[in-house]
Design goal:
Strand order of the largest sheet: 1-2
Distance between the termini: 29 Å
Order of helices and strands: EEH
Strand content: 5-15%
Number of helices: 1
Shape: flat
């Protein structure tokens, strides 16, 4: 298996937790889940806000997406 680093700096580490900040090339506002048809709104913190939001306190999730 060959690993390819394709524009690693265009997609920040916290990109998956904030659907309000789009990836440079696509929207993150909606997602398609495996095994489901259609799309649904992407939830903040992937639906685990109640459990993990405190881990991101004080972070600007628009800047550090």
């Amino acid at each position: 298996m060959q690993l390819i680093d394709s524009s690693g700096n265009e997609y920040g580490f916290y990109a998956n937790v904030n659907p309000q900040v789009d990836h440079p090339r696509w929207s993150q506002a909606r997602e398609r889940r495996i095994g489901e048809t259609g799309q649904r709104p992407t939830l903040m913190f992937n639906g685990y806000a109640e459990e993990v939001a405190h881990l991101y306190e004080g972070m600007d999730l628009r800047r550090w997406y």
